[in-house]
Write a structure and sequence with these properties.
mainly alpha; elongated; 37 helices
Length: 786
């Protein structure tokens, strides 16, 4: 079969197709609620007509097995360039045949003959589903051509949310009617419900006539080899089998849950409770389905499907269901189901479309549905057989009684979770890791990101878009990555800048190329923001663009942003550029930024120039930046910043805590150094150290910063003498200290430099107190951190 070139439809026709698809979906769900093996049909077939669990299981198994007729579609669609005509014709027959369900209800109401209804359903409904399966792959291929993959998941999950609103209303009305007219007239009510469902299903198919169909530019040439091509794709076959196992596991129990809930000898809940459960689960589905669709489009279908498999854990509630507890347990079961079920049931079909190539898609879809149908066909049959075989099983545990139903329920849960593991082995090709998606999904902040996505993507109000971008957090911002990246080209520079900042917070490597393009564009107004964002992302691909931009010159702010970004990224090439900027830049601001970067990179050779510049510069802001850079070398990068920034009261509190940490650290050191027998000497040394530190802290901020520095230098000298003995006072001790430890050597050198400046006076009289305060804090910080 040659690859068909699909003629793209205009946006107007695509929008029309979306609206009609939503309408047909609503009508189709009215049919599905009544005329397919769901709660209403299952209760009618088993509890009203009197079919056994095995018979119900066999019927559901036959419907699954009718998936073999999917293979017919390969040949039918293989010789036709159109999909719509055969789909509509076959599906009309399918929907008309479901009128036999209504006939079974009316016959039972008229003369009480229930066996006729069982036989009619067992014959007519599998034939109906054979026509459905012979044509449904054409619909999937049709919509795959209609809606682009990048929006397909979001659209179908939104469609699912809307159709489930109809689900809720229709199912609740139907279940309420069954309770209101319970008794001899119930068969007439069932008949009315089934007729409404069948007619809605027929109208659904007729409306598909008006949905446009993309036309292939080439007429396909069908060969027998095309029909077998999907069987050569091991990954696709594995996915189809895994899906079949998952549905097999679900069908073990699902057909029997509703009859169990309303059975007077079991839970005995009124039929209305089936409606209440459905309302709760479907309203939850409505709220969560669009979210799951967005997650699929952003991070792949597979992780969403696997997470969706955990909806089966909601079934644990059935183990504790009693005539007394169902009023609160059934709502909890329904909510848990509605949260995760759309991820599986909607996601599995979207994943199937992702794995099917445009070429020969019909064959792939047909084989998928065939394999999944055949593998899953025995699920309900096996569940019914186990159900009947264990009819006498009963186990009492406290107030709970476990029956054959619970055995099947436990087996189903375990098998669904097993199928999740099997699905995890399938390769989708572009999905994110399961752990990544799970971590994002369980983070409550993702709901805020999801809520802001519309403002980021389509808001015509610049203020709202800017506010939304500002609200994006790093933990969950990946969800809106495409929308934020698109805002880098917004007409408003403020929004461009906020978009770049948001990308920096998110830190995704996927945005590096977009940010580099803005960085290297001389006409861009967000070069600085782009450089800072690249620094936060820390991707090595950005090093060369940042280095080129730094060497080209430009504004001081841009150069500073580049050198800071290089310091964040690291690596030999970044180190080379940072040191070059530090040594050659004529700008004090760029040199200060380079010193900060060098310190964060752990380049101790920069210390020899950072510390003198701290003293020499007359700019208070740069002086503090140099002090922070030196502090980065002496302790944990970024920690010293808190002692020289913020409100005066806040800084005083933090500095006081730093001095307290100093005393604790030094006391512990002295306790290890002083002989335990000489407790008196230890006590005296601790007392003197505490006295010096307390006075130094008292002098800071009172105009006596020189005295504070002098006291802390004495404090340090006494400590070094206690640790290293007389060697600490001898020439060459600095070199010795460097051999012991790089930070210790830098500290000893810093003490010598501080003493030289203190003894020689300060060139900047107005800045002397600030310099002394910074020198003092650096001494305290090192001793408290060592």
């Amino acid at each position: 079969m040659t690859e068909a070139r699909i003629t793209n439809l205009s946006p107007g026709k695509v929008n029309l197709a979306m609206r009609l698809s939503i309408l047909t979906g609503c009508l189709g769900t009215v049919w599905g609620i009544a005329c397919s093996p769901q709660a209403i049909f299952n209760v009618f077939f088993q509890n009203q007509l009197g079919a056994s669990a095995s018979t119900l299981g066999a019927l559901v198994g036959l419907l699954q097995l009718s998936g073999l007729f999917q293979l017919v579609s390969i040949f039918v669609y293989g010789v036709s360039s159109r999909k719509k005509p055969f789909f509509i014709a076959a599906h009309l027959i399918h929907r008309v045949l479901t009128l036999f369900i209504a006939a079974a209800a009316f016959v039972a109401a008229a003369n009480g003959n229930r066996s006729w209804g069982i036989k009619a359903i067992i014959i007519a409904i599998p034939i109906s589903w054979a026509f459905m399966n012979a044509s449904s792959s054409g619909w999937w291929s049709w919509v795959a051509d209609l809606f682009p993959e990048k929006i397909r998941g979001s659209f179908f999950l939104k469609r699912s949310a809307i159709t489930n609103v109809v689900n809720v209303v229709w199912f609740f009305l139907a279940s309420m009617l069954l309770d209101v007219f319970d008794g001899p007239s119930s068969f007439y009510v069932y008949g009315f419900i089934f007729i409404v469902g069948a007619v809605a299903g027929i109208i659904d198919i007729v409306l598909n006539i008006f949905i446009p169909e993309p036309v292939s530019a080439d007429r396909p040439v069908f060969t027998a080899a095309d029909a077998l091509l999907p069987l050569k794709d091991r990954n696709f076959i594995g996915f189809s089998v895994a899906t079949g196992i998952a549905i097999f596991s679900i069908n073990l129990i699902v057909p029997f849950q509703a009859p169990f809930v309303v059975d007077p000898t079991r839970v005995g809940a009124p039929n209305t409770w089936l409606g209440i459960m459905f309302v709760i689960s479907q309203l939850t589905w409505v709220l969560t389905a669009p979210f799951w669709g967005t997650v699929m489009d952003k991070w792949g279908r597979k992780p969403v499907v696997i997470l969706g498999c955990f909806f089966s854990l909601s079934w644990i509630g059935y183990f504790f269901l009693t005539p007394r507890s169902f009023t609160y347990l059934l709502p909890l079961i329904s909510i848990a189901y509605g949260l995760l079920a759309p991820a599986f049931f909607e996601g599995i079909n979207q994943m199937m479309l992702s794995l099917t190539p445009t070429k020969n898609r019909i064959a792939f879809v047909a084989w998928y549905m065939t394999i999944a149908g055949v593998v899953s066909a025995g699920g309900s049959l096996a569940g019914g057989a186990i159900f009947d075989a264990l009819s006498g099983f009963s186990l009492k545990w406290g107030p709970f009684r476990f029956l054959n139903f619970h055995v099947v329920q436990l087996l189903a849960i375990l098998m669904v979770l097993l199928s999740a593991w099997i699905l995890s082995r399938v390769r989708e090709g572009k999905e994110r890791p399961i752990a990544f998606v799970a971590g994002r999904v369980v983070n409550p902040l993702i709901l805020r990101t999801y809520a802001y996505m519309e403002d980021i993507a389509g808001s015509y109000d610049p203020d709202r878009a800017e506010q939304a971008l500002r609200a994006i957090e790093s933990e969950t911002g990946d969800l809106a990555l495409d929308e934020i990246t698109a805002r880098l080209d917004d007409p408003y520079p403020e929004i461009q800048e906020e978009a770049a900042r948001a990308l920096g917070r998110i830190g995704s490597p996927l945005t590096v190329d977009s940010l580099v393009a803005r960085l290297e564009d001389p006409s861009s107004s967000i070069r600085i923001a782009a450089a800072r964002a690249l620094g936060k992302i820390r991707d090595r691909r950005a090093v060369e663009p940042l280095a080129r931009t730094l060497r080209e010159g430009g504004s001081e702010e841009l150069q500073d942003a580049c050198v800071q970004a290089l310091g964040n990224i690291g690596g030999e090439r970044a180190v080379e550029e940072v040191l070059n900027a530090y040594r050659t830049s004529p700008s004090d601001r760029v040199r200060a930024g380079a010193s900060d970067s060098a310190s964060r990179l752990g380049l101790f050779e920069a210390a020899w120039e950072i510390y003198p510049r701290l003293y020499e510069t007359g700019n208070p802001s740069l002086r503090h930046q140099y002090a922070i850079a030196f502090g980065n070398l002496m302790g944990s990068p970024g920690e010293f910043y808190r002692y020289v920034s913020g409100s005066e009261t806040g800084m005083d509190e933090r500095v006081a805590k730093l001095f307290g940490r100093l005393q604790t650290n030094v006391s512990a050191t002295l306790a290890r150094l002083v002989d335990k027998k000489d407790a008196k000497a230890l006590k005296a040394e601790k007392a003197r150290s505490a006295e010096l530190a307390e006075k130094a802290l008292e002098f800071l901020g009172t105009g006596k910063e020189e005295e504070a520095l002098s006291l802390m230098m004495e404090y340090s000298d006494r400590l070094l003498l206690r640790i290293f003995g007389r060697g600490a006072t001898e020439e060459g001790f600095t070199d010795f200290a460097f051999r012991v430890d790089q930070k210790l050597g830098t500290f000893v050198w810093m003490l010598a430099e501080s003493r030289r400046h203190l003894d020689g006076g300060f060139a900047h009289a107005g800045d002397g107190r600030d310099v002394c305060k910074l020198f003092t804090l650096l001494i305290v910080y090192y001793l408290a951190s060592s």
